[in-house]
């Protein structure tokens, strides 16, 4: 019998307990031992929960109980999760988490403690919800040099964009729906501003390339500026808008970015819709491999947490070596030095003058129009590929010419 404690009885925590209860027999068979929940830590009361006899508000009950060998941290946020996790690891308890913010920020240190103590700190649920991605990167694809990871890593924003594309729903309406379905973060800004996807790509980059990649230094842009008109232009281009998290090894350096990107409908990630996540990995031996599944929600995330618990029970006496180095040398490439094409919309009373200026600034652009009363006073185009710093400088100049009223949309474009 292995006793575990669950810290946090929110959406994921209650899902973990539910899955352990529901699939108890098959989980025990796969783990080789019965798994029993001894404590649930939460500051709230749950008077109607069938698990209320396990609830405690005192973390010391868990940390001082030698019978508890695995702690499941599903509280989210940095504190008190960081302190509790560190204390649990230092006292020799394995820890499983879905907390991407904590892994992205303190992963190197916590993994190091786990290694020293010959125990495990596992975080499959921190990226991609129910999709297995951490273990495949670390084990199944271990023979490969991974050169690139591109993913739709946030279910909430993918749900919102899909609703805008398919149903013409407003951003706010779709966000509220995602919150009601339990996909969104407590503070939805973490989803819609791209921070959640940024933490996830930081974890995947650190794991893949072996250095701690600082999420606060990754260029991050969310979807709050995307309008229905942008979605329609993308449609006209045979494309869709997706929030993509990208990480590439370029020489000794890493290029990482989170931003909306217009991708053709033929792109493997274009068909990843609703709350689903998709992660495309390029390896030198395997070529392209794609992971797809539910990226958020109670039971999908619980599924990944419980898989980590089973893994630990099977390997209770050894460290799994999911590790990356603490080094934070200047390994990220500056966004200005990377290249991209842009889709741009310029509001103007003088379209021929704008077309002339744009063509002089960027060379051969692809001009696009849609049949929409709100876009009659604008010129929209896709630029050729340029360094981002050059494109930004040219756009700043265009924004300042007298016949330009505003540059109202700037979205990166991937052609294939
Ligand atoms: N808010 C996150 C998402 C939850 O929407 O993907 C899963 O990490």
Rounded to the nearest angstrom, the distance between the terminal CA atoms is 52 Å
Please bin the fraction of helical residues. 25-40%
E-strand count: 17
- Tell me the Rg in angstroms: 23 Å
- Overall mean pLDDT stands at 95
Provide the CATH topology of the largest domain: Dihydrodipicolinate Reductase, domain 2
Question: How many individual helices?
Answer: 14
Could you outline the blueprint of secondary structure elements for this entry?
Elements: E1 2-7, H1 11-22, H2 24-31, E2 35-41, E3 55-56, H3 59-63, E4 68-73, H4 81-90, E5 94-97, H5 100-116, E6 121-122, H6 134-140, E7 146-152, H7 155-167, H8 171-180, H9 189-192, H10 195-209, E8 219-220, H11 228-236, E9 239-250, E10 253-264, E11 276-283, E12 287-294, H12 298-314, E13 339-348, H13 351-362, E14 366-368, E15 378-382, E16 386-387, H14 388-399, E17 404-413
The structure holds L-homoserine.
L-homoserine binds next to helix 7.
């Amino acid at each position: 019998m292995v006793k575990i404690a669950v810290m946090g009885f929110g959406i994921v925590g209650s899902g973990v307990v539910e899955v352990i209860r529901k699939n108890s027999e098959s989980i025990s068979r796969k783990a080789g031992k019965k798994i029993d929940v001894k404590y649930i830590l939460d500051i709230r009361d749950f008077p109607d929960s069938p698990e209320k006899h396990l609830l405690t508000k005192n973390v010391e009950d868990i940390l001082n109980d030698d019978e508890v060998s695995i702690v499941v941290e599903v509280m989210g946020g940095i504190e008190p999760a960081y302190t509790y996790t560190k204390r649990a690891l230092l006292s020799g308890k394995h820890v499983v988490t879905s907390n991407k913010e904590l892994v992205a920020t303190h992963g190197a240190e916590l993994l190091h403690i786990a290694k020293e103590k010959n125990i495990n700190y596992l975080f499959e649920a921190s990226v991609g919800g129910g999709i297995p991605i951490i273990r495949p990167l670390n084990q199944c694809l271990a023979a490969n040099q991974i050169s690139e990871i591109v993913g739709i890593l946030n279910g909430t924003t993918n749900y919102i964009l899909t609703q805008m594309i398919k149903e013409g729903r407003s951003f706010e309406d779709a966000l509220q729906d995602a919150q009601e379905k339990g996909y969104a973060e407590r503070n939805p800004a973490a989803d819609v501003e791209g921070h959640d996807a940024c933490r996830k790509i930081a974890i995947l980059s650190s794991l893949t390339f072996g250095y701690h990649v600082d999420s606060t230094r990754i260029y991050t842009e969310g979807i709050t500026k995307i309008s229905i008109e942008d979605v329609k232009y993308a449609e006209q281009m045979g494309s869709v808008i997706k929030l993509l998290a990208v990480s590439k090894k370029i020489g000794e350096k890493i290029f990482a970015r989170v931003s909306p990107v217009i991708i053709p409908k033929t792109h493997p990630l274009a068909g990843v819709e609703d709350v689903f996540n998709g992660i495309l990995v390029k390896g030198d031996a395997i070529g392209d491999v794609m992971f797809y599944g539910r990226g958020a929600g109670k039971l999908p995330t619980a599924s990944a947490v419980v898989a980590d618990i089973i893994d630990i029970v099977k390997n209770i006496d050894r460290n799994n070596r999911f590790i990356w180095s603490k080094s934070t040398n200047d390994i990220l490439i500056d966004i200005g030095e990377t290249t991209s094409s842009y889709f741009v919309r310029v509001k103007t009373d003088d379209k021929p003058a704008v077309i002339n200026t744009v063509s002089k600034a960027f060379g051969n652009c692809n001009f696009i129009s849609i049949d929409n009363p709100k876009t009659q006073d604008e010129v929209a185009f896709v630029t050729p590929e340029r360094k981002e710093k050059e494109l930004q400088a040219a756009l700043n100049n265009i924004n300042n010419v007298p016949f330009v009223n505003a540059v109202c949309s700037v979205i990166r474009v991937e052609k294939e």
